[in-house]
């Protein structure tokens, strides 16, 4: 074969539902040279990462760490470590990523029950309560913000519900953490997992996660095999964790002062995760959430200023992504292709029932910026006009400017 | 909390059994900006990666790709996708990483049988043959090179054996690929998984892997759930793959022209993996293996030149790591600590029965270099002398020079 040249990506402004363009500071941090896994510097960096992500998750949980996979892997780590085969789990489903929780929990051998809401809405608390009463689950597994619909599920009342039924509460915060309020301890969440590639402003490949003492207790009780070396004899529990790679008990040991060998830490991703957290905490967590809300609101106003309809129940919209109903007269994929080819801007398509009906435009992490919002709106106006959609001239940009005008 | 500063690792020369210092070219490639998951550039980069790793694995396998995890995760992906609960698997064990295969296969619900060899040796073919006759396994799962002992298992005759019993052949080549010959197709290996952090010269966090048509057939037959969205109705097979994240059928789809959504590719790690392969293929695969052998031989000669004993059966030693018996009169950990603190050089400790008895010194990837070998030997001589070990003055470096003298 002829060898391909050095990697040389085209300039892209990634304004989809994530992954988004990484903050250049994160990429620079990731070019730092490696140290050994048990180097004192590495030990310190791992401890720093734990401390930084305790701030990001707003938690005191000791077990706050990185799973060495994409966000999807961390979901599996949480579910396979918390769920034994036959355990009942309740999953409120309001979009594609709820289905993913169902799918993963089924592979863990759990007995999965769902409570569904139409796409574009959230699941009412009373529906969850009724399902809890009926199912009596071991775990309530929720998506916080589902980018497939842009909806963000309220967590009010969930802890009380879980306490009533002695149930653990898991949240997939991949799409929301850092850009929307998610106070883990205040909301009584037992386990939460994320990824770097959304509001945290980094690349996919490392997944911050946190586990409450209650979750840790459940996981620790499933230990049957010594970390790294197989124990002789029978397992101690009937249901050891079905995965080695995602065995959180072993991952806790790896991140503990004992630093028991498990996987070989993806050090470059850890450097990146560390810088993502530093960037947010330099701004301040609340200020960073405000930043996402501001630019999300500007994009939303801009989309409406172009005469386009916003998808979903606005009362529950995530700050960092907006669903845009594709005008009937236009081919959504042709518009996306022109945005990418001619303007270097990526906006998102949709899945399942929304495929071909809704674009998803994100404003998150490094790309929650005024210039990114205005450039996207100007390009969209131009492309829509060339595709025969009658759009008000300057309507998108003007509406976004109005939002910024009152804020800056 | 007070915010930690920008990441600023100390200078380290990582001469342990891996991870090793990454090639700076790989780190630079990883600082390239992201593109979208389905960007034409990304599609092309993924196809390039498949082609590059077909060369590295010396295979024509279509399904040659990256698993988004460390090397350990790719082992699990192979085993959980190839093994159904109750399937018999035979694992020849000659060190720690054989135990890891056992441990992972047990978590997959497989019926695991082992054939053991003392540490420091390899498992004789006739022992494997006898065990195959007895066990009749679905899968023979082997570690190619086990860094815990520095031993490399010969693969001669294994394909014939597997054909006789209609058995699949899996190899963990994490520690050997790129630095030792491993012709996947010539040896008839059905599945092999690696990592970037050893002879490939990159950081941990992405795992190249390859699967023969025979392995693909087994995996495809286990499809029961549509990629990404759960199908309604009952599963098609009795034993769907127990993991979503490591479901190779779904990962194949993601890397296929259909690009069905699964995880969000860890693009930065993919850039790194691509550059690792480019570096090796620029040199030439065979030349790169020769390079590892040369520097490995120089290190081995140097260790003996210092009057130290080499661990294990030399006839089966991997090119890229040497076990060094720690002299009785010295505390191995004190020597390692002084090497790191005073010379910035990391050498490895050992696990299990070899802990405290053997150091492991690696010469692989970027650090398979003359200056790295000589600097390590000079530092080791100095530290040993200060710790009261009588070592021949210049004996290590001189012996290494002798090896280079005949080669360069």
Q: Can you walk me through this structure?
A:
Chains A, B: This is (S)-ureidoglycine-glyoxylate aminotransferase. The structure is a homodimer of 408-residue chains. With 408 residues, the first copy, chain A, is an alpha/beta fold. In chain A, 40% of the residues lie in helices and 13% in strands. Chain A has a 7-stranded mixed sheet with strand order 2-10-9-8-5-3-4, sandwiched between helices. In chain A, strands 1-12 form a two-stranded parallel sheet. The first copy, chain A, has a two-stranded antiparallel sheet with strand order 6-7. In chain A, α4 links the parallel β3 and β4. Chain A folds into 2 domains: 23-280, Type I PLP-dependent aspartate aminotransferase-like (Major domain) (Aspartate Aminotransferase, domain 2, 3-Layer(aba) Sandwich); 285-407, Alpha-Beta Complex (Aspartate Aminotransferase, domain 1). The first copy, chain A, has helices at 24-29, 40-57, 71-82, 96-107, 125-135, 158-164, 213-220, 248-255, 267-283, 285-305, 332-343, 370-386, 395-407, and strands at 13-14, 63-67, 88-93, 111-116, 139-143, 145-146, 151-152, 168-172, 191-193, 207-211, 321-325, 345-346, 358-362. The longest helix of chain A is centred in the C-terminal third of the chain and has 21 residues, at 285-305.
């Amino acid at each position: 074969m002829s060898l391909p040249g050095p990697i040389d990506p085209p300039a892209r402004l990634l304004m989809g539902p994530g992954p988004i363009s990484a903050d250049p500071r994160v990429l620079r941090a990731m070019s730092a040279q490696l140290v050994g896994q048990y180097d004192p510097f590495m030990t310190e960096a791992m401890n720093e990462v734990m401390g930084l992500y305790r701030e990001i998750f707003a938690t005191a949980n000791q077990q706050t760490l990185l799973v060495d996979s994409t966000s999807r892997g961390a979901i599996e780590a949480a579910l396979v470590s918390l769920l034994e085969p036959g355990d009942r789990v309740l999953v409120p489903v309001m979009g594609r990523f709820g289905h993913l929780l169902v799918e993963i929990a089924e592979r863990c051998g759990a007995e999965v029950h769902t409570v569904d809401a139409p796409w574009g809405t959230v699941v009412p608390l009373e529906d969850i309560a009724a399902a809890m009463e009926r199912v009596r689950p071991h775990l309530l597994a929720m998506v916080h913000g589902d980018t497939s619909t842009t909806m963000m599920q309220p967590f009010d009342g969930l802890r009380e519900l879980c306490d009533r039924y002695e149930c653990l509460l898991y949240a997939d915060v991949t799409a929301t953490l850092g850009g929307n309020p998610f106070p883990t301890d205040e909301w009584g969440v037992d386990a939460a997992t994320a990824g770097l590639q959304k509001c945290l402003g980094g690349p996919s490949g490392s997944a911050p996660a946190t586990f409450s003492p209650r979750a840790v207790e459940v996981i620790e009780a499933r230990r049957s095999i010594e970390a790294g070396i197989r124990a002789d004899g029978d397992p101690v529990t009937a249901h050891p964790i079905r995965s080695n790679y995602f065995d959180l008990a072993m991952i806790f040991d790896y991140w503990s002062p004992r630093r028991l060998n498990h996987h070989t830490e993806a050090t470059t991703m850890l450097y990146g995760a560390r810088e993502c957290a530093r960037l947010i905490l330099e701004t301040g967590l609340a200020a960073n959430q405000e930043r996402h809300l501001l630019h999300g609101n500007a994009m939303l106003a801009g989309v409406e200023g172009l005469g386009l309809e916003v998808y979903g129940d606005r009362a529950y919209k995530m700050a960092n992504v907006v669903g845009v109903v594709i005008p009937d007269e236009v081919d959504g994929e042709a518009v996306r292709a022109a945005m990418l080819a001619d303007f270097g801007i990526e906006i998102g398509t949709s899945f399942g029932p929304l495929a071909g009906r809704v674009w998803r435009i994100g404003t998150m992490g490094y790309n929650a910026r005024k210039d990114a919002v205005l450039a996207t709106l100007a390009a969209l106006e131009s492309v829509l006009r060339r595709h025969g959609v009658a759009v008000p001239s300057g309507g998108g940009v003007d509406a976004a400017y109005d939002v910024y005008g009152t804020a800056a």
